[in-house]
Amino acid sequence: xxxxxxVRRRSLLKVDPDILLLGVYYIAVIFFYxxxxxxxxxxxxxxxxxxxxxxxxxxxxLLVLSVMPTLKFQIDRRAGSxxxxxxxxxxxxxxxxxxxxxxxxSGVHWATDIVGSVLLAGALFMLYYCAxxxxxxxxxxxxxx
Length: 145
Fold this sequence. Notes:
The chain is mainly alpha-helical. The chain is 75% helix and 0% strand. It has five helices and no strands. It has helices spanning 2-9, 17-38, 59-78, 82-106, 111-144. The protein is elongated, with a radius of gyration of 18 Å.
């Protein structure tokens, strides 16, 4: 959506602020993913292909729990159909729960790796959510004044 807006509007500054903030959010998620890959906190309980890999936080859980809430948030902001919003909510909750449960039962992560991912993804999403709300409030106050 951001790419379409950029092409049509011919300026990065004309892309919706919440979409620009979404890009910043995804860059932050990638930063933390790379940081924890470069600086391992602990290692997986089992070797993968004979090698011990960084395990904390669970990267799969981090990525799923970073992307899925933004999908729901953007659909809720942009979709007029309550059926679409409900279907998206159901999909996001089911997919996220299955992915987290799958990582827990797969045995390739400690439970603390999953919990760390949940907390980090939740904190990053709340920063994004608050930034969008602050942007919306700032735009509303500029329009009133």
